[in-house]
Amino acid sequence: MNAIARIELAPDLTEQVRQRLLEAICTGDLAPGARVTQEELAASLAVSRQPVLQALRLLKRDGFVTDAGRRGLMVAPLEARTIAQVYQVRGMLDGLAARQAAAARVRIDREVVADGRRAAAGGRLAPMIDADMRFHRLLYAASGNPFIEQTANLLWHHIRRAMGAALQSEGLRASVWDEHAVILDTVEAGDAERAERLAREHGEAAGRNLAARLTQRTHDERFQPPDTTQETMQ
After folding, report:
1. Which residues pair with 67 in a beta bridge?
2. CB-based contact 72:145 (threshold 8 Å)
3. What is the rounded distance in angstroms from the CA atom of residue 220 to the CA atom of residue 172?
4. What kind of fold does domain 80-220 have according to CATH?
5. Which 8-state DSSP code applies to residue 179?
6. Which fold has domain 11-75?
7. Average pLDDT by consecutive 10-residue portion of the chain (234 residues)?
8. What three-state secondary structure class fits 144?
9. Nearest Cα to Cα of residue 145 among 107, 195, 94
10. Where are the alpha helices (DSSP H) in the chain?
């Protein structure tokens, strides 16, 4: 074992910095396109530059920050194509989980749907996202295959970031929990084929809808007329 080099850095501190930055990116406190620098982040987090550097390298590897030319690094934009791809994979995982759960006729606690509707009615984003992820994690657990959730967790932060934008729509909030309820009905009925199809289509449709909104928002921002308020007031 002497051939294994010692670890010189403090991985716990690096991980804490990574988690803090990831949280800020997912909640939008660090907005897409925002420039990030080691110096400013280190000062804000009251740590040295070294753990910030290591955390940024990890975030870049995972696609949350990207090069900004001579400007250093910036928070990666929310691109429609990427989000559609993430949700496409999620749809396949959800479909497999629903099929397995239905085949075993697992009964999932229906209170998760009631909790989700209450969170949607409350209008606060974080509880809505937490409720949605609780539903999907219960579905993964019901599948009996731990690798489904482990794989989904690799996408979790991309999904959470995208959901922050997706759940701005009141219509989407209502339809999400209607669809969740039907998926649970189908799982409990033991209809494995239909449960798989509904869960997969649910994920894919969410990805398409969000991708379309992101595309429209980008278009609107690009062609937004200049602000003439100041000219008018003069």
Report:
1. 73
2. no
3. 21
4. Four Helix Bundle (Hemerythrin (Met), subunit A) (1.20.120)
5. H
6. Arc Repressor Mutant, subunit A (1.10.10)
7. 56 89 87 91 93 95 90 87 88 97 96 93 85 94 96 87 69 80 97 98 86 73 56 37
8. coil
9. 94
10. 11-27, 38-45, 49-61, 80-103, 111-122, 125-143, 146-166, 170-189, 192-222, 229-233
